[in-house]
Amino acid sequence: MRIMVFQEWNRVAENDHLWRNLCLKKWSFCNFSKCLGSQTWKQFFFKQTKQEYQMALAQPEDFIFKEATGNLGILGPMAYLSGNGPTMGGREKSIICTVSSKHMLYAWDVQEGTMIWSSPVQQPSITHLATLPQMHLAFTVDLEGTVKVWNCQDQDALATFPVSQACFSLEVCLTKDGPFLMVGNSEGDIYTLTVPELRGVSKVHAFKYTVDLLHCSPDKKWVFASGTHQNILPRVFFTECLLKPSEGKSPLSLSIPFSSCCRACWAPRRTSRITLMYRRGSSKKTGFTTFDLMTERTGGRTVIQVCVCLFHMKTAHQVATFLLPVHMESPIWMGASDGNMIVFESGPYLFLFTISGHQLQRFEDHQRTIGNLWADSLHVLTTSMDDSLHVYMWEEEGRYPYLKSCCHLEHIGSDLTPSCYVSKAICDNMSIVCVVSKNRESSILVMYSLHT
C-alpha cells in the first residue's frame, strides 16, 4: 500500500500540466516561447528558480567581467535580444542590442563580451529601440520616423515602414494572435503594425500632442498611451480593438482623468492595475496615483471601467493621489511590483512606498545622486553619478522585506575616470550590462555574467 502511494506521488510530481501551471502562476507576467525545446516544464521551473536564487545571492566576485571599448560612439538605448527573463529554448547566452551615436545598431554576446553583429550606418540616426526576444528581433525608429525590423544576423533590415512625423514611443506586444508593434508619433497618432512584415493594421489619432508613453499591460489586454504635455489626459485602449479595427468605428478606450503624467508602470502580477507618476503645480512636486481597469459586457458591447484605488488624501480636484513630502527631491524613474508597492529614486536614496503613500523602505547604498533606475518584475538596478551600481530583487509574493538589497558593484568598469553622462544598466537572470561614458565621443559597454 505504501509503495502504491509513493508511486502515485511520483506520478503526480512528474505531471507536466502541474508544472506548467506552477510556471504560469509564478511567471504569469512573462511571455513564454511557443516551444519547450528539450526542456520539460518541471526542468524549466527548477532552472529558472535556480538562476533567480543565484542572482539574489551573487557578490562581485561571482561575476565574470567583460568590457567592450573602442570607437563605439555614445551608446544610447539598449535591450536584451535573448536571455531576458524566462526563455523556454534552453539557450544559455544573453544577447543584447545597443544603439550608437555612430548611427548603427550593435548586437553583443554578453558572456563572451564580443560584438557579434552590427548594422550598416543608418541615415538619419536611430532614436528608439525595442526587442522581441521570443523571435530574436530588434526594432528601431530613426529621426525621420522610419521603422525597421532586424534579425541581427543579416546586413539589411527585414522590413521598413515610414511613419509620418518623428516618433517618440515604441512598444512590442506579443498577443495570442501573434506579435505586433505599436509606434507613437509627434502628431498624437498610434500606428499598429504586424511583425515581422511591418504591415499597417490600424492608425489611431489619440492626442493633439506627442505620444511619449506606450505600455502594454502584462496580459496584453490593454495599451496605455500618454504624453508628457500638461494638457494631455492619458488613455487606455482595449488591445483587441487596435489589432482588429472595425471600419468607421473608433477603438474602445478610456481617458484617465489625470494630466501631467511623466511615467507609468503596470503591476506585473496584477495585470489590470497601473500606477502613474505625475508632476503638478508651479513647484512641479511629484505624486503617484493608481488605477484598476475592468471590462464588462452590456448588451453585447464591452465597456471599460476605471476605479481609483488606495489613496492617501484627496486634493482640491478630488482625485485619488498622494504627493511626496515637500523636502523630498523629485524622482525621475519608477518601478512597480505586486500592484501595492512602487519604487523610485530621490537624490542618493532608493525608496519603496505603498501606493497609498506609506514609506516601507529607504536604501542608502549610493554616496551620490542616483542617475538611473531600471526595474522589471524580478530586479531593480540603480546607477549613481560615482559609477557605482546596485542590484535589488523583489521578494516573492510581496513578503517582507519586500525589496532585497543584493549586490553592490563599486566601480563600473576598469577606468576610474568620472563619467560624462549618467550610466545606465539592465539585467536578466544571468547577466548585468551597463553603459558608461568616460568621454564625450565614445562609451564603454560593461558586461557582467554569473559563473555557471
TrEMBL record:
<dbReference type="InterPro" id="IPR036322">
    <property type="entry name" value="WD40_repeat_dom_sf"/>
</dbReference>
<dbReference type="InterPro" id="IPR015943">
    <property type="entry name" value="WD40/YVTN_repeat-like_dom_sf"/>
</dbReference>
<keyword id="KW-0833">Ubl conjugation pathway</keyword>
<dbReference type="InterPro" id="IPR036047">
    <property type="entry name" value="F-box-like_dom_sf"/>
</dbReference>
<protein>
    <submittedName>
        <fullName>F-box/WD repeat-containing protein 12 isoform X1</fullName>
    </submittedName>
</protein>
<comment type="pathway">
    <text>Protein modification; protein ubiquitination.</text>
</comment>
<dbReference type="InterPro" id="IPR052121">
    <property type="entry name" value="F-box_SCF_Substrate_Recog"/>
</dbReference>
